[in-house]
Amino acid sequence: MTTRTCLSIVLAAGLGTRMKSELPKVMHDIGGLPLVGHVLKALTSAGSERISVVTGPEMPELEALVFDLVPSARCYVQKERLGTAHAALAAKPSLKFEADDVVVLFGDTPLVTSETVGRVRAALAEGADIAVLGFETTNPFGYGRLLTEEGRLVAIREERDASETERLVTFCNSGIMGFSGAHALSLLESIGNNNAKNEYYLTDAVEIANAQGLKVVAVTGSETETKGINTRAQLASCEADFQERMRSAAMDAGCTLLAPHTVFFSHDTELGTDVTVEQNVVFGTGVTVAAGARVRAFSHLEGAQVGAGSVVGPYARLRPGTVLGAESKIGNFVEVKNATFGAGAKANHLSYIGDASVGSKSNIGAGTITCNYDGYLKHRTEIGASSFVGSNSTLVAPVQIGNGAFVAAGSVITDSVDRDAMAFGRARQTAKEGRAKKLREDLQAAKDAKARETKS
Ligand code: UD1
Ligand code: MG
């Protein structure tokens, strides 16, 4: 563990014109978290003490996200977008902290891990003045090329400024660059804008440092971890890589995924040991599944906690605020929202349970609906423990069903039901002897009479 102090500067002011979006580029999601959020997560787990983020003018939602994820972060606004070196200089006040290491990262390179940031810092600790994270790719188009000579990094050439031979180089710049704190500010301030885009390129720091006799090295990372996002296609490709990473992590942690490539995770999905996830399951954000639970095929979960040993699905939908106790069961075509189920409680078929609590060991029959909304306000349904709600019941909230109560099938329940009581909220059944037969005879006679009339 290094004792060197670190300042990280995340550049996130770019609009990402090629995304063709109203949203700032770094606010597009991977695994339900904006791109820049992934970078911030990696930095916090890498132990970066100070994190500065450079945003563009009028990006309040980006600033809010940064402070939400890293309350101690500082945000700086780059007023005009004049390039990556210009963006890094927007965070100039933070450079006055005089950290040992200054790591500059891009908000559009979301899959970088804390280990890799650590490797860049290790190169600085070993005496490099600049350490650039590079990667080998078969498709270098659009990336800055790392030009090396006898193991030294001599320059980074942007696609537009590269000669034909330089374009053949497949060793590319990830955008992640470490600077020794002693030289960071003066190097950034020496960068000019004499290039094809008339921008201040961060990458020019490499040639300037070499001219000053400083030590510049390249650290090699993996392509999946370092690829940047400039287009929607690259966003989709990064999402696919991220999903692969999450699937492997889940299996390594002791979960069974029956068809891993059909299970989609969010950045914060937490699965306990011996959880089984069947085919075609989607985890939205904020889901935890405790040990031994089974999520059956075609289920969609979001903002939900699933208790140990529970079974969810097939075809279940758990919406935010769902908390399922141990050994509970939510079956096919059941939607649960903002509702708790006690241990061993069940809703096995075709129900909507919203703004409700269901006590332990209670059984919710097929087709039960909690009517939680009157068009203006939401109301709660409270169902006690060991109660039984018969099929096709409508529970009009606010309403309470006591412990051990029984609701007869097909009831519309508008008044609370006491503990151990049995409620019938439906018309009493009556049957008329022979009435069906008589009705058939009458109808047939009427039909025959009509047929005779048309004939004559
Ligand atoms: C950049 C690198 C390139 C590298 C590639 C890796 C430079 C000059 N080029 O190119 O060598 O291979 O990333 O993905 O550094 N940004 C600002 N303000 C600006 C310009 C950019 O904050 O004025 C931010 C963007 O939000 C983005 C990042 O910096 O997060 C990189 O900018 P981008 O325009 O995507 O650069 P690339 O063309 O991808
Ligand atoms: Mg980019």
The main pleated sheet reads as:
19 strands, parallel
CATH C-level class of the largest domain is Alpha Beta
CATH topology of the largest domain: Spore Coat Polysaccharide Biosynthesis Protein SpsA, Chain A
Termini separation? 105 Å
Radius of gyration: 31 Å
Mean pLDDT, all residues: 96
Provide the helix percentage.
10-25%
Structural class designation = alpha/beta
Instruction: Enumerate the distinct ligands.
Output: uridine-diphosphate-N-acetylglucosamine, magnesium ion
Supply the number of helical segments: 11
* Low-pLDDT ranges: none
Give the count of structural domains: 2
β content, as a range?
A: 25-35%
Quickly list its features.
about 450 residues; alpha/beta; Spore Coat Polysaccharide Biosynthesis Protein SpsA, Chain A; UDP N-Acetylglucosamine Acyltransferase, domain 1; 2 domains; 19-stranded parallel β-sheet; 7-stranded mixed β-sheet; 11 helices; elongated; binds uridine-diphosphate-N-acetylglucosamine; binds magnesium ion
Provide an overview of this structure:
The model has no long low-confidence stretch (mean pLDDT 96). Helix 2 links the parallel strand 4 (50-55) and strand 5 (74-77). It is built from eleven helices and 33 strands. By secondary structure, it is α/β, with parallel strands linked by helices. Bound molecules: uridine-diphosphate-N-acetylglucosamine (UD1) and magnesium ion.
